[in-house]
């Protein structure tokens, strides 16, 4: 059976790439791996792979190349720069899968560069992935793939090998569309990773037990995938180091620099990015991103006496109000940006609810915002949650943090954004649908 | 001559109050001082004052009472709480000047409390001051005074003694209007104190000499009163400790809590406040606020080689672009808030250009924003600076900081706010007047 399967060149054997490449080995593919870190190559040979010592050597004679390096600069280097770049050794009509998370503008420039260098034959697929190292090794990643029909056709079996059956998204729009889809998802991720630290840090300053807080939040309408994953790592002293702060910072940078380029406002992601930068300055960059809670708990005082059940309930509600306000604004920022990037909003929604950016708030308010972005009139229902309701709960949290003299970077930002949405006179007299928050971002 | 002058009770002999009270002594008034800190009372006696050991004793038999405590809670305590509060000892129709910076809502509640306690005769003046300890001692403060005509009439000579001839502002609107005027001014102050640290921190990360940066900025259209005062203290290692971070944090809290109460968005002040809170968590609260630069320079690397003159000029321009973008948004936030507080915008402008919140940007764009808030059409002139011009320069700075991997809290916030203002399609094709930034805040 293995003899039927094509040989795959795999460039970039980091936490994600190593899992993906060894998964292909287990599926019976012959894989030639390349990485600049020699010990990784040894490990890959031990796992049954072949290895190469240059990008050129890795790709030569292969009909399929997967590139899973960390950044656009690394992809550029592997393909075009140095003594033995991959480009001249690429086979005619090779299938080149760029799985790295890179700016849309980069992967589009890559397509142009290939044409300019006479290699318009390369069948490039723009296919960033999501799901973490565990799912990479299981071949159950979420993958967002864009490219020409021919390129998608040739690469599809390989995308299918690497992804979960229901989580391979073919994104309309050609090269750049996959990266845009990933970028829009990462708006949710970048906001929610910091929100986890902010919410748990707030809980700690409120004197709440963090294990109880974690359970209370995740069993409520303030639950989120990220909170579910980072929360336990906060409880286990930021171990294991599963995702360094520098990783989400890189993705945040892609979002904010692309937003700057096209003139789109990203106040939520921008706020998160500044806090990530501040953690970098303090030497926390390589630490697990759950450790961002430290930026919220400095100088915290303990409580004089234990909390009553009533106090606890009131304080859990404050943390929920904070998180839900943040998630509402994060949802709006991601979906309006998706519209701006001309992505299919239903597909964005479908992808995000099943991925790391998902949350109960995204799940419920997402379809409402999508309706609003399609021009439907969104009217608050008498028994539904209004924007003013979300605002009130968030603002109680912000006011409490002010009394505690602690920062709530995202909560304050969200509170101000909601006030921007509510500033028209009509909002003083009648409840607005919570989806109207999206009008702050929408043109 | 001194015999003609009434005796003054003076409560609160801190850095500001001590200067004000001793200035009154020098002008020939008999002054009875009170403070909870005994060594201060000794110093005040040495300066020729009388002292009292309780608020009640201090005010008894006096026709004029100045209250210059630090917070609303202290004012409340002095007047109504404890064993010997001032209230029962206040003379009939006493002139009570509350010079502390307090929320509008507090001084209004004070007026109500006096009436409720049967002391509607008290001639309360709401008269916060600005200008620092030096001008307090010289009797040349800026004072913003609101109250009933009778109260203002009775207290006027005392306000005149404490203020510069041209800097006593009688604010229309009764009790609360003086505090609102101060609050609106402090929007500028709170933003510009952090902006000084942000601009100088950015300069340091760019490898610029800070003395040269200071001179370049202050000789340009990016100059500001705060930068002029905090800049030199940055150059002298945050000495002297002239204004602790906790002081501007208190004022920022008045702004953001009042804004929250009335539903007004204050994204610039809110951002500054979160950074102030983070400095508090790190134990910097009592340090001079010029030391906020430390939050921007952590982990900074030195430059490999000296800068060329061309590099320097380019980098000074980046710092200017950053500061001017921040000041533009700070100006808009303060003036739209002033309108919301129903203040006389011309008076706000006149006060702010001559006070600590002033800057070249405020001076030039302020009248334009006031025109816009009065409903005038503001059209960008072909040779004038457009909002897009300010945006471009700011965004170059933000992009450079991203490369340096450092936070620009205010710059990023301002950049996103300008993008909110520019999001309509018209802004893609035609230059907008820079005053149109105010539409982000305006209802």
TrEMBL record, chains A, B:
InterPro entries linked to this entry: 3-OH-isobutyrate_DH-rel_CS, 6-PGluconate_DH-like_C_sf, 6PGD_dom2, 6PGDH_NADP-bd, HIBADH-like_NADP-bd, NAD(P)-bd_dom_sf
Protein name (database record): 6-phosphogluconate dehydrogenase NADP-binding domain-containing protein
PROSITE patterns referenced in this protein's UniProt entry, alphabetically: 3_HYDROXYISOBUT_DH
GO MF entries: NAD binding; NADP binding; oxidoreductase activity
3-hydroxyisobutyrate dehydrogenase-like NAD-binding domain: residues covered: 176-296, 319-423
Boundaries of every 6-phosphogluconate dehydrogenase NADP-binding domain copy: 7-165
Gene3D superfamilies linked: N-(1-d-carboxylethyl)-l-norvaline Dehydrogenase, domain 2 (1.10.1040.10), NAD(P)-binding Rossmann-like Domain (3.40.50.720)
Pfam families in alphabetical order: NAD_binding_11 (PF14833), NAD_binding_2 (PF03446)
